[in-house]
């Protein structure tokens, strides 16, 4: 699958595509190796956009032609997050919401068996 090919399904199972709250994390539209763009899953060719001025808000804007400024304003540099999850963390999908489970290190000396009641 090429970086610009849209997956046929929007399930977050694809190698290069990451699902993030209704947006696909795709390579930056400015074609730089250090940037990424957030494409809306529900609105084709619409991206999170910022006009690059101080204090500006981000909004969803749809692509109309090949504007160089649009490509630059929808490409963001990825930085280090505020925190990182432990490598053994995982996502538990619930009926109505998802949960990130990670180890609690204040219980290191104790052993626990955890049972999940997963229902259809």
From TrEMBL:
Recorded GO terms, molecular function?
alpha-L-arabinofuranosidase activity
Entries under Gene3D superfamilies matching the protein: 2.80.10.50
- Biological process GO annotation list? L-arabinose metabolic process
What this protein is called in its record is Putative alpha-L-arabinofuranosidase B, arabinose-binding domain-containing protein
Native species: Medicago truncatula (Barrel medic)
């Amino acid at each position: 699958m090429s970086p610009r090919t849209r997956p046929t399904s929007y399930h977050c199972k694809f190698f290069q595509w990451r699902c993030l709250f209704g947006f696909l994390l795709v390579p930056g539209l400015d074609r730089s190796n250090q940037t990424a763009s957030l494409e809306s899953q529900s609105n084709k060719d619409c991206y999170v956009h910022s006009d690059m001025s101080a204090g500006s808000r981000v909004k969803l804007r749809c692509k109309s032609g090949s504007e160089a400024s649009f490509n630059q304003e929808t490409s963001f540099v990825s930085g280090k997050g505020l925190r990182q999850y432990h490598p053994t963390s995982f996502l538990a999908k619930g009926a109505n919401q998802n949960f990130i489970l990670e180890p609690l290190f204040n219980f290191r000396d104790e052993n626990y068996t955890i049972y999940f009641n997963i229902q259809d």
